[in-house]
Design brief:
Layout lengths: L3 H14 L2 E4 L16 H7 L3 E2 L3 E5 L5 E4 L1 H6 L7 E3 L3 E5 L4 E6 L11 E7 L12 E3 L3 H19 L3
Parallel strand pairs: 1-3, 2-8
Antiparallel strand pairs: 1-9, 3-6, 4-5, 4-7, 7-8
Helix pairs in contact: 1-4
Length: 161
């Protein structure tokens, strides 16, 4: 049983290493877009490929982010959101395939275009690097193996596994 532990740790690290962190809007913060540009965040989302396990990061001041249903997204309001945060530095892990609907909880902001739909797929990531505006969340498979071996090697040798 003890010999399975290193393998399980390796698999967990490799799975986490495939996640990508996305800064919502690229370098821009989560704010009301300029007048006439109500699709800013949906344009940004459509240029990226989101997969289960990826993380979207919202940076903002005196605002909030809510994950809501499609109906609430279309109405730009929610009294009972799926998720709510107003800490100015919110990370949401995309934990399932399908659409995620986000709106600002600040009065009038959603109507001003501060809303976004992210479509998440569970398909394997293409062999190319992460999409533009994204930074790898992990070390990558090779880095994960190096870290894992550096941590586990002394234990394996010490216990003659």
């Amino acid at each position: 049983m003890a010999s399975l532990l290193p393998l399980l740790l390796l698999l967990a690290l490799l799975d986490a290493s495939r996640a990508t962190n996305f800064e919502v809007g690229g370098d821009a913060e989560w704010v009301v877009p300029q007048a006439g540009d109500s699709q800013t965040y949906n344009h940004w989302a459509s240029k990226n490929h989101f997969h289960v396990g990826d993380i979207v990061h919202f940076k903002y001041n005196v605002d909030s982010v809510m994950e809501v249903t499609e109906e609430e997204y279309n109405k730009c309001e929610s009294s009972d959101p799926i998720f709510f945060s107003n800490n100015g530095n919110t990370e949401v892990r995309l934990d399932r395939p399908g659409p995620f609907y986000f709106i600002s909880g600040a009065t009038g902001h959603c109507q001003g275009g501060q809303r976004m739909v992210i479509k998440v797929t569970d398909k394997a990531r293409p062999p190319s690097g992460p999409p533009s505006g994204a930074a790898p969340a992990g070390f990558g498979p090779a880095g994960a193996i190096v870290v894992l071996m550096a941590v586990l090697w002394p234990l394996l040798v010490m216990h003659d596994i």
